[in-house]
Amino acid sequence: MPAEDRAPREVVSFVRRGERLSPGRQDAWDRLAATYVLDPPRGERDTLPGPDARLDLEQVFGRRSELVVEVGSGLGENLAAAAAEHPERDHLGVEVYRPGLAQTLRRIERAGEPGNVRLLPLDAQRALPALLPEGAISQLWVYFPDPWPKSRHHKRRLINPPFLDAVLPLLADGATFRLATDWAQYAHHMRSLLDARPELELLYPDGPAPGQQTSDTVPEDLPATGWAPRFEGRVKTSFESKGQRAGRLVWDLAYVRVSRHRTTDA
Fold it and tell me: Contact 68/154 with Cβ under 8 angstroms?
């Protein structure tokens, strides 16, 4: 393809490493992907939706219910457990890493193959606003995204203005937006961006910091309050355990999507 015909290179928050599957993951993929992994038409890249791609949630799940979206669902520990524990909700995991998707399928199978979970193998920032209608999401979860700690890579962090511009309109009034990171610098970055959004309010404005002792550097101006308690609906994943073994604190955040009338009238 001539260079002038290629889609422009965009900054993304993820790196797609090896896509090969172990025999167990390949077996799960072969048996379960057709049921659980959504396959909308693609655009210029295989992580982008096509121009006419849409998700009919009622058709996907066979009903209309509260929709919980986890961006960066990883190996599926949290997603599979949440779907099995809450059959009254529908769960959508967004993840581009194929081995992670295959491992999630294995966890879904072990959880009894709940029918209220689906996987979307696309770039969340570009795909969700194209596929979902405004106000479709009741809960949005972003747990332990890649911190991209080097300054020159901060533009690759998932929690940045382009992502927020893409997903905040998808939150229903009163929806919750939950995040967690084990990097104090990223927690500071999240707070500086999320606290400034008029669409969001802290769910725990008086909530204390998770502790005092951490192995990483805590910014001097990191807010002392506004932190959420650990969400009891979040399974302790391998990412969280790794951070704790390294001596880092886990910073939980929870916001509520304020009424659109309020933001319009402000």
Answer: no
